[in-house]
Amino acid sequence: MLRCQRLVCQASVVIVAASLIALVSPANARAHGDRTPVSELGSAWQFSAPLLVGIAITLLLFAQAYLRLRRRGRSDHADWARPVLFGLGIAVLVFALVSPLDAIGEEYLFSAHMLQHVLIADVAPALIIVALRGPLTFFFLPRQALRFLASRERLRQLFGLVLRPKLAFAIWVIVMGGWHVPLAYDFALANAWAHYIEHFSFVVAGMLVWAQLIDPARRYELTLQGRALYAVALFAAGHVVIHPALFASGPIYRAYAEQDERLFGLSALSDQYWGGAVMTIEQVLTLGAFLIILLWPYVYPRGHQREYPDPGRTFSLRAGVRDQ
Fold first, then answer.
1. Which of 40, 123, 77 is nearest to 290 (CA)?
2. pLDDT: which is higher, 48 or 188
3. What does the pLDDT average to over 288-317?
4. Shortest CA distance to 64 belongs to which of 83, 85, 45, 81?
5. Nearest 5 degrees, angle CA 285-CA 290-CA 295?
6. Which has the closest alpha carbon to 37: 121, 107, 129, 136?
7. Residue 299 and residue 113: Cα distance in Å, rounded?
8. Taking the domains of the chain in order of start, what are their residue ranges?
9. Angle (nearest 5°) at CA 258 between 255 and 263
10. I need a surface site. Which of 42, 131, 314, 318 has the fewest CB within 10 A?
11. With 80 as the cut, is the pLDDT of residue 83 above it?
C-alpha cells in the first residue's frame, strides 16, 4: 500500500513537470543579446507555438481529471475552486515567462527578475499543487500513462528519492542559491540555454517542496508539525539568497550594474535592495498563508474537522487505476 501511494505521488510530479516544459521554454526563445528598447517594453510579449501546445496539453489533462471525478459524484474533491486555482497557477507561470516582465528582468531590473523567479518557483507551483490535491492527483494521468510509469522500476526509484522531504529541500536550496551566485546569474543571462535550464529547475524545485507542504497524495512523509517546520525552514533558507542582495554595499550583478538606462530612476544598488525585498515579501505572503491555513483548525478547533492526518482518506494507485 505504501509503495502504491508513493508511486502515485511520483507519477503526478512527473506529469506536472513534463507538461510544463513547453510553458517554460518559449520565454527564452528570444536571444538575450537582442536588446528591447524602453519604448517597446510594453509590447514585449513572447507567445509561440510550443507555449500554446504546452498550455493546451496541461489544461486538457486537468480538465479530463476534473470531469471524470465530477461524473463519479466526487464533487467534494472537484469543486469549482479547483479549476480556478489550477488556471490561476498556469496563468501566473505564463505571465511571468512571456509578458514584458521577462524582458524587463533580463535587461533592466534585478527586482523584476526576482519577481519573475518567485512567480515561477513558488507562486505557480503552490497554486497548481493545491488545485491537484487529493484524488485529482491520481486522475491527472490517464490509466495507460500510470501503468507505463508503474512498469519503470528505476524511474520510480529516482522520483521516490527526490520526493523525500530532506532531499527535496536540499534540491530547492541548491537550485535557488546556486543560480543566484553572481557568476552563475550573469552566465544564465548571457546564454539562452542556461537560462532555460535555470527556469525549468526553478519550476521543478518549487513543485518538489510544495509537494512536501501540501502533500497532495497524502503520503504522510511529514507530520503536521513537520510540515509547519518545513515551511519555516524554507523561509530561513531563502534568506541565504536574499541576504547578499539586501546587505551588499554595492551592486553584485554585473549585468545590471553596467546598464546605462535606469527604469523608474532606480540605481543598481536600490534595484538590488528591491529585489531582496520582493523575495522576502513573497515568502512572507505564500508561506505565511500556508501556515495560517494549515494551523487554523488546530488553533481554533471548534467547528473545524481535523482532516490531517486521516489514514482513512489515503488514496492508492491501484484504486486510482481501477476507477479510471
1. 123
2. 188
3. 62
4. 83
5. 130
6. 107
7. 37
8. 2-33+44-319
9. 85
10. 42
11. yes
